[in-house]
Write a structure and sequence with these properties.
It is a single chain. The chain is an alpha/beta fold. It folds into two domains: about 130 residues, Aspartate Aminotransferase, domain 1 (Alpha-Beta Complex); about 250 residues, Type I PLP-dependent aspartate aminotransferase-like (Major domain) (Aspartate Aminotransferase, domain 2, 3-Layer(aba) Sandwich), CATH 3.40.640. Helix content is about 40%, strand content about 15%. Strand 5, helix 4 and strand 6 form a beta-alpha-beta unit. Helix 1 packs antiparallel against helix 9 and helix 2 crosses helix 9.
């Protein structure tokens, strides 16, 4: 039996604290209560998601689409319902536009290979931005080298925003696809995706949006955005890892060749020829991560029950509190000060390297991220080798942020001594 989640409201006195839905938040690390501020890397999982995956493995486990027995049909139905939930989550026109992948990285590679490569020739251009995650750089870089095309990069301002004027000037007849982060995993910047898609559409250019950091924090409507492809990962959305979503316009997916070959994506196989199923099955070769997809569906249900608007409002409060507290720390510089951003703060301290900061915080039971965050070109733009990053979810508290700030003051004292 699945447990019913508690519900978040502004007043914690009126309803139970949603932290109680996340068992890992009750543990201690190195003798201290865990403060988990690494949500941009992966979010924690509510008990209802853990229970749903466990229940599937314990009571429903079977392969999908291939069996006439009861368990197979039950598993297939649960998998298909998860696809429908993902379609509703993004407001896709149909669940035929939802492809299950291993995550954002595989989804981008799929589009690069099946959509990009056949359309890109020598002299063409692929437009990205300077704030992209490596997952939205390397696949396009590989395609560009193979096809003799050029990877063109829209610059980022000192505040951590894409330079829209420069971006507009880079769009042209040679641009074959635009691939952009909806939200920066380093800076937290919410890019004006709808406007940038519209600018590309004026030139007839298709657009992929990397939504890995967007979907946990803001409402996403792919039809409103008018993008051609949208990607995200389950593990950043309170769901299991190893599964993600590629949204693609139905007519574009139908025209794309398969990304991989194998079972379940075929209509007919002979030694002479193979014909393929229609999307989305065409892009889901082999046995998929069935339990992961079902767990993602449970995570979407959980967010709907808690209330996405309430979650996002809570994160905005946490961001404001953290920005104020960290801004008071001597020698601390916040990297990324765009007015529109999600609950992610990257920062540097004059007194200590980010890796030292991360290690000392860990000794206090505080989990953050330190490094280049799979965005080395952006680090070069910022003029730093790395940053420390604190990223928040709705289950975090202002008291945890105060512990972070107090420990950072301790870091300053340690290295100034």
């Amino acid at each position: 039996m699945l447990r019913k989640p508690s519900h978040y409201m502004e007043s914690q006195e009126q309803k139970p604290d949603p932290r109680s839905d996340f068992p890992i938040l009750r543990r201690e690390v190195k003798g201290k209560p865990l403060v988990y501020l690494d949500n941009a890397a992966t979010t924690q999982k509510p008990q209802v998601v853990i229970d749903r995956v466990s229940d599937f493995l314990a009571n429903e486990n079977a392969n999908i689409h291939r069996g006439v027995h009861y368990l197979s049909m039950e598993a297939t139905d649960a998998y298909d319902r998860a696809r429908a939930k993902a379609a509703g989550f993004l407001n896709a026109a149909t669940d035929r536009e939802i492809v299950f992948t291993r995550g954002t990285t595989e989804a981008i590679n799929l589009v690069a290979r099946s959509f990009g490569a056949p359309r890109i020739s020598s002299g063409d251009e692929i437009l990205i931005s300077a704030m992209e995650h490596h997952a939205n750089i390397v696949p396009w870089q590989m395609i560009a080298k193979e096809c003799g095309a050029q990877l063109v990069v829209a610059p980022v301002t000192d505040a951590g925003e894409i330079d829209l004027e420069a971006y507009g000037k880079l769009l042209g007849t040679r641009t074959k696809i635009v691939a952009l982060s909806h939200v920066s995993n380093v800076l937290g910047t919410i890019n004006p995706a709808q406007q940038m898609v519209a600018m590309a559409k004026e030139h007839g250019i298709p657009v992929l949006l990397d939504g890995a950091q967007a979907v946990p924090h803001i409402r996403v409507d792919v039809r409103e955005l008018n993008c051609d492809f949208y990607t995200f990962s389950s593990h950043k959305l309170f769901g299991p890892d190893g599964v993600g979503i590629l949204y693609g316009r139905e007519e574009l997916l139908a025209a794309m060749p398969p990304y991989q070959g194998g079972g379940d994506m075929i209509e007919q196989v002979s030694f002479e020829n193979t014909t393929f199923r229609a999307p989305p099955e065409r892009f889901e070769a082999g046995t998929p991560n069935i339990s992961g997809a079902i767990g993602l569906g449970a995570a979407i249900d959980y967010m709907d029950k808690i209330g996405r608007e309430a979650m996002h409002a809570r994160e905005a409060q946490l961001l404001a509190h953290a920005t104020g507290k960290l801004g008071e720390i001597p020698g601390l510089t916040i990297r990324g000060t765009a007015p529109e951003k999600v609950a992610v703060i990257s920062f540097t301290l004059e007194s200590a390297h980010p890796h030292d900061i991360g290690t000392i915080l860990d000794s206090a039971g505080i989990a953050i991220r330190a490094g280049h965050h799979c965005a080395q070109p952006l680090m070069q733009r910022l003029g730093v080798p790395a940053t420390a990053r604190a990223s928040f979810a709705f289950y975090n508290t202002t008291k945890e942020i105060d512990r972070l700030a107090d420990t950072l003051l301790e870091v300053n004292r340690m290295f100034d001594a």
